[in-house]
Amino acid sequence: MKNTKKSRGAIIGAAFLMATSAIGPGFLTQTATFTGSLKSSFGFVILISLIMSAIAQLNIWRVLCTTGKRGQDVANDLLKGLGYFLAGLIALGGLAFNIGNVGGGALGFNALFGIPDKLGCIIAGLLAIVIFLSKNAKSIVDQVVKYLGAVMILVILIVMFITKPPVGDAIKNTFAPSAPFKDLSSATLTLLGGTVGGYITFAGAHRLIDGGVTGKNNMKEVNKSSVMGICVAAIVRILLFLAILGVVTKFAGINLSTPAENAAILGEELSSGYKGISNPAAYAFYVGAGKVAYRFAGLVILAAAITSIIGAAYTSVSFLKTFHPVIAKNENWFIIGFIAVSTLIMTILGGAAKLLVLAGAVNGLILPISLGVCLVAAKNKKIMGEDYHHPMWLWILGIIVVLVAAYVGITSLGNLKNLIG
C-alpha cells in the first residue's frame, strides 16, 4: 500500500474513532458511578476491561481488515443469515447507546452553559448531523475525533492534579481489590459494554476498510492503528478514574448520583452551589475543583458525546449498508436519520445518566457473540485465505475473553440494579 496522506488519515482516524467511541459520555458516567461505589477497587475493573478490550480489538481488526469485509459480511460467510442477526444486534445496541450519547451531549451543554436538557439534546444531535451533511464527512470525522480526543485528555489531566488522588492505594487495589466479587463483576460487564461492546469493537476496523487499509500486507498499519486507539482510550480511562477517586476519597461517604444528600459531608455552601441535572462525572469535577472545573467537565462530556454520536451512527449504519445498494448509496442520509431518531427518543424520554450505564450493560452481552464469530472465522480458510495464519496466542486469549464476558454477562445482570441505584 502506498502510504498516502489519505491512508494515514484513515489509520489515525480509525484509532481515534475507536478510542473516542470507547470513552464516550457513557464511560464518563459509568466511571463516576462505579468509582463512587467501589473506590480504589474500580482500578481492577479498568485493568481487566483494558486487557479484554485489547484482546478483542486485536482479534477483530485482524480478521476484518485481512478479508476487507465488514463484520456482518464475515458472519454471513461463516453461516448464512448470521450476519443479519449480528447486524441487528449491533444496530439495536448502537441505537440504545446513541440515545444515551445524545443525552450525554445534553449533560455537557448543561454543565458548560446551563442549557436545559431537552434543548441540549437537540443541539447535540444537530451538531453531529451537520458533519454528515458534507460530502467529505469521513475526512471531517477523522479530524473531529482526533482534536476532541486531545481536549478530553488535557482537561482530565488538569483536574486529576487538582484532586490529588491516592495513587498508591489505587495501584494496590488494582491488583488486589477489596470490593466484593459480585460488585466487581457487575461493574466489569458494564464497563466492557461501554468501552468495547456492541458497535465499538468494529468502529475502527470499519473505518480502515472504508479507507482501503486492508489485506495481509497492511497488517502492520492495522496493528498500529489498533494499538494507538487502545493506548488513547487507556490514558483517558486511567486519568478519569484517578481524578474522581481523589474526590470520593477526600469526601468519604459522598454519593455522586445524589447531590442533594451530600450537604452534611460537603457543607451547605459547596452543596448549594450545584444546580445541574443528574450528572455524576461533572458533579465530581465540581466537588473536587470548583465551578471552573465543573464547566470544563461540561466540555469533556460534550466532546465525548459528539464523538460517540458520530461513532455510533457511522458504525451502526456500516453494518446495514452492504445489505442493500440503496443504503450504501445514501449512507450519509441513513446516518443522519439514525442520529435524528436517537435525538428524538432522548428528547422525549430523558434520564441520560442511568440510560448510559444500562446501555453499557446491554452492549456488553453482545461482545461474546461478535468476538466469537470473528474467532471462528479466523480459522476458516475459505474466509481468510489458505496462506493466512492467525496468531495462536491471540486466538486463545480471544476464546478466554469470550468465555469470561459470557459468564460475567450472565451472572452480573442481577446485581446491576444495586450498583446504579
Mean pLDDT rating: 82
CATH class: Mainly Alpha
How would you describe the oligomerization state of the chains in this entry? single chain
Largest sheet: none
Nearest-angstrom radius of gyration?
20 Å
The helix-strand sequence is HHHHHHHHHHHHHHHHHHHH
Query: Could you give me the name of the CATH homologous superfamily?
Result: Amino acid/polyamine transporter I
**% residues in beta strands:** under 5%
Tell me the count of domains.
Answer: 1
Number of helices: 20
| CATH topology value | Amino acid/polyamine transporter I
Specify the structural class: mainly alpha
- The name of the CATH architecture is Up-down Bundle
Q: Which overall shape is indicated by the principal axes computed on the Cα atoms?
A: globular
| First-residue to last-residue Cα separation | 51 Å
Please mark out the parts with pLDDT under 50 across 5 or more consecutive residues, or reply none.
Answer: none
Account of the 3D structure:
The chain is mostly helical and 421 residues long. The chain has one domain (5-420): Up-down Bundle (Amino acid/polyamine transporter I). Helix content is 80%, strand content 0%. The chain is globular, with a radius of gyration of 20 Å. The mean pLDDT is 82.
What is the element layout, followed by pairings?
Blueprint: H1 5-22, H2 25-38, H3 42-67, H4 71-78, H5 82-113, H6 117-132, H7 137-163, H8 167-175, H9 181-195, H10 200-210, H11 219-250, H12 263-266, H13 268-272, H14 280-318, H15 325-329, H16 331-349, H17 352-364, H18 367-378, H19 381-384, H20 392-420
